[in-house]
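Worked problem 6 (solution included).
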Amino acid sequence: MPTAFVSVSYAHQRALSTELDAIAAVLSAHSITPHIFVRAYTFAPDDAQAMMAAALRDLRAADLLIAEVTHKAIGVGVEVGMAAALGKPVVYVRHAGAEPSTTVGGLAAVTITYRDAADLRAQLSAALARGLIPR
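Solution. The predicted structure is:
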């Protein structure tokens, strides 16, 4: 089964919990395993090398990356850059009220700008159904 690496700001993961749950539900419904990195691991501040090694390992194993960029974060940008360098499709997701990221947008195969979790579900499901994200 394909895997999607889901990247999101560590500091804002709780604020985006509903959206992350929506992404995970849609991926599962499309037979794609969601891998929400910030939920999968806990690293101490001095474990930066281990964290980046795990991120790179998990990105290599993934089939695509979904970047939730409602709250810009350097780590998400690094993960997007790594995914692009590895040739993985990038899905750029942000709330309609959030400032766009030209960097992520420039690397994205698909861009989803959503109003709420239901809209996010619908748009992501439609993108997957259209085959815009290779599996």
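Discussion: The beta strands are 3-8, 33-36, 64-68, 90-95, 110-114.
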